[in-house]
Design brief:
heterodimer, A: 16 helices, about 0% strand, B: mainly alpha, Cytochrome Bc1 Complex, Chain D, domain 2, two-stranded antiparallel sheet, 2 strands
Chain lengths: ~350, ~475
């Protein structure tokens, strides 16, 4: 380092403590074992979120909420140079992010990384997933083409089915009795102001917890003695691999968004009957199908309420797992939690498959 | 037509060639690049003074050459012959034109191909059995022969994009083969050759990373480090040279076809031809990604570099290769042989004759001599298979049912008439061949497509009367 850069470094270091940060990064290590691959999925989710912030801001420049929502998206897609690419990248990264969060969640679950002292990491992660799915739901309506219009209409029936307060919630989200330009305005406010304001601090908290507690090891690794375990330094080894993963994620995103660009349907027309094959996005397919299946066993309002109850109970059990399966030792509770996870994966996959199978 | 129409539902006949060809290119270009990698690595190993390091290098090269021999000798050759089967069936007219022009070229190709296969086997089986200098010479002979196969096939592939004015002047006269060398060293020959050389060296590095990733980084850290880093270095030449070569290549392509590249910037509307633009984006992004991933995963962390890392680099290379080959094919639109034969096999100067006499009359395998159907499909379907089927399917790849969705019969007919007239201001002229044939052919095709897009309502079921 020349004396000039050294003195600039010293000036910044004195005020921000860079040397401490570098020392901290040097000492931080990441466990190396057969399951290390799963450590990258949180980072991939983060990367895809950053892509969405970037592309989202670009879309914000041209998007008009309200009555001319469709027209503005049409212009972005078919008139602006590379508008189609930015919009495709935004939609694809949203879907990929939900996918990678789900992978991240299940890998955390099966590695038992929610156990003490990482309960808050699990809870904040679940909250982030919840917000991400609301991001997805609200963003889906914004183009106001026929598919997004009718899918939103169907989707809003789920909160509206909650006894007593359901209709009020439904009207509040819609801005009236019908899905229309007021709904777009509301969803837009939710999508670009309210949700980011909730998501960003929570994400900061989640990342801070990861720094504080480090990577969790699967129980099989924890059972080994410290001498048998392998680690690698976080900086620069793990970071380099992380960056390589980000590059691959970027590449897959570029591939999907340029080869399969996100299409735009016909403008939503409230007067025509819904087109065939209206279905929710894939990450809502499973709850949608579960409610549908329960409705066929118990028709009417009773079925709807029972469905919502069972669903809420299942999610509550899932969220509260750190308090049920808290012990380090692999006892009966740990095994039960494991089976519960396997059942959850199976139920998600099976109901999603049935959902797609029965679209027509 | 030399063969009956071979219509592949859903996938489309183009993809039959495409899938085989992309698989083949991944391996055959490795066969060329790897052909230089092996003797160069062997020479490097022979110059290492430390006997232990030298033995380590040679041991790794033996295992790499086994992998190389099996991969190229089995999968490379089988898929290469597979391309022959596939193009003969899916594009008999174009294949026939190529054979008539380049039969001598292919004869040379086969000679080098035999030398290549033989020396690859000799090289692998004579490790430590013959004098090491002689062994190295065998490696160089292999490298020369495999380079020759690329040098020859490149002339034929580049010819299809840009046959060149000299050849076009004699095309159709029966004297085409007299301009063999003009057709061979056509306008895109050199940029295309150098581009492929770059791809070959990169693939040599990518595949060598696969075998080097299998080395134990804990037991042989220095050996693995030097092997991995040396393999990564093979990616560098193409990273530096490809952008310039690409510009040169595109500069040699006729401007009308180059214009296809910009079509996808404004729009992604279905029916407009924007795929080339999008594929070109994929090539650029993925090439940059490969370099980044190879740098972070392999060059900076050579001892930790494992098989899944290597596979991810290989997967990315597969994406670039696929996108590159796809774009090259697309850039030729609306021709399969530039300015001479349209992508559905119709020769450009024959258009007026077919318009006067009818399309099916010129198809040997569809109609009998007296205009009587000899096949089990209708006139309209036969025209669809012959004129549309090279690029479109009904409901899979570029699906006509979807592309024509929402049009009634009159509307479909207007569209076909527009393709038939093929006026200069038609947006489709840039990438689609004209629809050729008589008035009746237009009507027959309209009827067939209309029945697909607007199927007649099912007749009410008749209940049995007692």
């Amino acid at each position: 380092m020349t004396s000039k850069t050294a003195s600039i470094y010293d000036w910044v270091d004195e005020r921000l403590g860079l040397t401490e940060l570098a020392a901290f990064a040097r000492h931080k290590t990441v466990p190396v074992h057969a399951q290390s691959f799963w450590y990258y999925w949180g980072g991939i989710s983060l990367f895809l979120f950053l892509v969405q912030c970037f592309t989202g801001v670009l879309l914000l420049v041209y998007y008009h909420p309200g009555a001319d929502a469709y027209e503005s998206v049409r212009q972005i897609t078919f008139v602006m140079h590379f508008g189609w690419l930015i919009r495709s990248a935004h939609s694809w990264s949203a879907n990929l992010m939900i996918f990678s969060i789900l992978v991240h969640m299940f890998s955390v679950y099966f590695m038992k990384a929610y156990r003490k002292p990482r309960e808050f990491g699990w809870l904040s992660g679940m909250a982030l997933l919840g917000i991400a799915s609301v991001f997805g739901f609200s963003g889906y309506l914004l183009p106001m083409d026929d598919l997004s219009y009718f899918a939103t209409k169907v989707g809003l029936q789920i909160p509206a089915a909650i006894p007593w307060i359901g209709p009020i919630i439904g009207n509040m989200l819609r801005g009236g009795l019908e899905v229309n330009e007021f709904t777009v305005q509301r969803f837009f406010a939710l999508h670009v102001v309210v949700l980011p304001a909730l998501f960003l601090p929570l994400l900061g908290f989640h990342l801070w917890l990861v720094q504080r507690h480090g990577n969790a090891m699967p129980p099989a690794e924890e059972a080994k003695s410290i001498l048998q375990r392998k680690t690698m330094p976080f900086f620069p080894n793990f970071l380099r691999k992380d960056l390589a993963m980000w590059l691959i994620a970027l590449n897959i995103l570029a591939l999907l968004s340029s080869v399969f660009p996100w299409s735009l349907g016909k403008q939503a027309d409230m007067l025509v009957p819904a087109p065939q094959g209206i279905h929710p996005e894939w990450y809502f397919m499973s709850p949608f199908e579960m409610l549908k299946l329960l409705g066929s066993f118990m028709p009417g309002e009773a079925g709807e309420i029972a469905g919502l109850l069972i669903f809420t109970l299942g999610i509550a059990l899932w969220v509260l797992i750190p308090f049920y399966d808290a012990n380090k030792a692999s006892g009966r509770r740990a095994r039960n939690a494991h089976y519960f996870g396997l059942i959850a994966v199976f139920a998600l996959l099976a109901t999603t498959a049935i959902g797609y199978w029965t679209i027509r | 037509m030399n063969y009956p129409f071979w219509y592949i539902p859903h996938l489309g006949s183009g993809w039959v060639i495409g899938i085989i060809a992309i698989f083949h290119v991944m391996i055959s270009q490795f066969a060329v690049g790897g052909g230089f990698y092996l003797p160069m690595a062997e020479r490097k190993a022979m110059r290492i003074a430390d006997p232990a390091v030298r033995a380590g290098w040679l041991e790794q090269l033996i295992s790499h050459s086994k992998f190389f021999f099996i991969l190229t000798g089995v999968f490379g050759t089988v898929s290469g012959v597979g391309i022959w089967f596939a193009i003969g069936l899916t594009h008999p007219e174009a294949t026939s034109t190529l054979i008539h022009n380049f039969v001598f070229g292919w004869a040379m190709e086969w000679v080098f191909f035999l030398v290549e296969l033989t020396t690859a086997a000799v090289y692998y089986y004579t490790w430590n059995r013959i004098d090491e200098k002689l062994h190295l010479t065998v490696g160089w002979v292999y490298a020369g022969a495999s380079a020759a196969t690329l040098i020859i096939i490149n002339g034929i592939l580049a010819f299809m994009l840009t046959p060149g004015d000299t050849w076009l002047a004699v095309a159709g006269t029966g004297h085409e083969a007299s301009k063999f060398w003009n057709a061979f060293f056509n306008p895109t020959y050199w940029p295309s050759l150098l581009l492929r050389v770059c791809v070959c060296t990169s693939l040599a590095g990518v595949w060598a990373l696969i075998t080097s990733s299998r080395m134990d980084g804990d037991k042989q850290p220095t050996l693995k480090t030097s092997m991995v880093k040396w393999s990564v270095a093979w990616l560098v030449p193409s990273f530096v040279a490809t952008p310039f070569l690409m510009v040169w290549y595109l500069f040699m392509v006729p401007a009308s076809q180059r214009a296809l590249l910009t079509l996808g910037i404004d729009t992604i509307n279905s029916g407009t031809f924007s795929t080339v633009t999008r594929m070109a984006l994929v090539i650029i992004v993925t090439s940059a990604t490969i370099v980044g991933v190879a740098y972070f995963l392999a060059y900076r962390n050579p001892t930790d570099f494992n098989l899944s890392h290597a596979m991810s680099v290989l997967l990315l290379a597969l994406i670039v290769t696929g996108a590159g080959e796809y774009s090259r094919e697309m850039l030729r639109k609306p021709y399969v042989i530039g300015r001479w034969m349209y992508s559905n096999g119709v020769r450009v100067p024959y258009v007026s004759r077919i318009n006067a006499q009818g399309y099916l009359v010129t198809s040997n395998w569809v109609w009998g001599s007296a205009g009587v159907a000899t096949t089990n499909y209708s006139r309209g379907e036969a025209i669809f298979r012959g004129e549309c089927g090279s690029c479109h399917t009904l409901d899979g790849y570029r699906p006509l049912r979807q592309l024509l969705d929402g049009r009634d019969r009159a509307n479909i007919r207007n569209f076909i008439v527009m393709l038939h007239q093929n006026k200069d201001d038609s947006p489709y002229k840039k990438f689609m061949p004209p629809m050729v044939g008589t008035e009746q052919d237009v009507n027959d095709l309209t009827d067939f497509l209309n029945a697909q897009v607007n199927p007649p309502a099912p007749k009410p079921m008749l209940t049995a009367q007692k």
